[in-house]
């Protein structure tokens, strides 16, 4: 892995993103639209909006980054771009880290825009440090990106990559504490939720934890990128 190859990959991916207005709209504006819709739904219940809004401020970026990165990486493989790149000095680590850097920039912009809208315009009460909420939103988006890159290795078509969203993400939403408190779940479900990364992403956001939960989110993102480099295939068979 070299810095030159990694940065070249990141520049290439950012260039592709700039030329794809639909993906930019999905990344930047869909979380904002969903937060606005949530605000209108709970217009007469501001306390509920504050509670659920903070959790979804982490979940919405997670979902969009997961979807976009899983499809983008698979497209590299099915188009033959990945196979051609790996015949050059660019290694799997360069490719994955380059993608992580490029989409990390997108995650930063996405989280900043969604957080600014929610906390500034919509009046979401952060219940703590605004800077910490922004940091956690960015961390959740980066986690979604890393997991998207990981699961793309197990799909053969873009349609299959999209199918990972309900199969991989929705169970985490059900068990992360958004729908029901985790301490009220059956023991087996609570044990499963303890192993799911979104659980810690949501808890970090709602409990304003800059400690263990945030470290777990960062560790899961790093582990997903490492596993993605190991499982990455040159092309879809």
UniProtKB/TrEMBL annotation:
Domain of life: Bacteria
Domain ABC-2 type transporter transmembrane: 8-206
Principal subcellular localisation of the protein: membrane
InterPro entries: ABC-2_transporter_component, ABC2_TM, ABC_2_transport
TM region positions: 24-42, 54-74, 95-124, 130-154, 161-180, 214-232
Membrane topology according to the record: Multi-pass membrane protein
A Pfam family reported for this protein in Swiss-Prot or TrEMBL: ABC2_membrane
Cellular localization per UniProt: Cell membrane
Keywords carried by this UniProt record: Cell membrane, Membrane, Transmembrane, Transmembrane helix
Gene Ontology MF terms: ABC-type transporter activity
GO CC field: ATP-binding cassette (ABC) transporter complex
Tagged with keyword Translocase: no
The protein's name in its UniProt record: ABC transporter permease
Organism listed in the record: Solirubrobacter ginsenosidimutans
Organism taxonomic ancestry: Bacteria, Bacillati, Actinomycetota, Thermoleophilia, Solirubrobacterales
